Amino acid sequence: xxxxxxxxxxxxxxxxxxxxxxxxxxxxxxxxxxxxxxxxxxxxxxxxxxxxxxxxxxxxxxxxxxxxxxxxxxxxxxxxxxxxxxxxxxxxxxxxxxxxxxxxxxxxxxxxxxxxxxxxxxxxxxxxxxxxxxxxxxxxxxxxxxxxxxxxxxxxxxxxxxxxxxxxxxxxxxxxxxxxxxxxxxxxxxxxxxxxxxxxxxxxxxxxxxxxxxxxxxxxxxxxxxxxxxxxxxxxxxxxxxxxxxxxxxxxxxxxxxxxxxxxxxxxxxxxxxxxxxxxxxxxxx
Length: 286
What we know:
The protein is mostly helical. It has helices spanning 14-29, 37-46, 55-66, 73-85, 92-99, 103-109, 121-142, 152-155, 157-160, 165-172, 199-203, 217-239, 242-248, 257-285. Among the domains are: 14-118, no CATH class; 217-285. The chain contains 14 helices and no strands.
């Protein structure tokens, strides 16, 4: 018997992400060869894991990753002591002011947990929405979507031709493929073999594909009922005796006038009853 072990999703550790961003920005500005290395290490120590036992070694490893190969234990201990007496910067903008992060550098490195000193939080939100809108707009244009000011609903070419909107679309799509009506979105296909179904193919499908233009539903149902009535008539004609079938065909010279009249009455009554049943059935369906 196999046992399925469900892994519990770990909680997002924002401290670890901010530590990685501090290291990325320190390597970007080359802080390892300057006197500002201690400032970056202090910000890194603020977000260190509380379960870390050997903090001196952790600071040395961070300095090694930033590019300082000979960072001693005494220097790491001094960084830990200074970080304990310095006021911590927890917010993104305060940390950006402490490290001197600019907006262009933030966008270039893809920092999300550190703010910027030249553009505030509200301004970054507005810029983020604008960039997202422009991105989706470029994506729609690449897929073939038409801008809204250039759409048919805005240009209204039927007014220049002095006709109604529906008549313009009907003439435009007559004998062509595509959809009837305005649509500013591009066609989405699930595979490369998909294509738009022509209107002519839809008209040839009968009941499933819809009725042809200019034909009413009642006429289509009655035509179907008449076709079925002919089939019923043929089956009823086959059930008649040989004598009555000959009289129904007009061969009354071989029989008496009374037998011929009886055959015609029997034929008429049979057909009327069957047609009445068929009409009642289709009226219930409609």
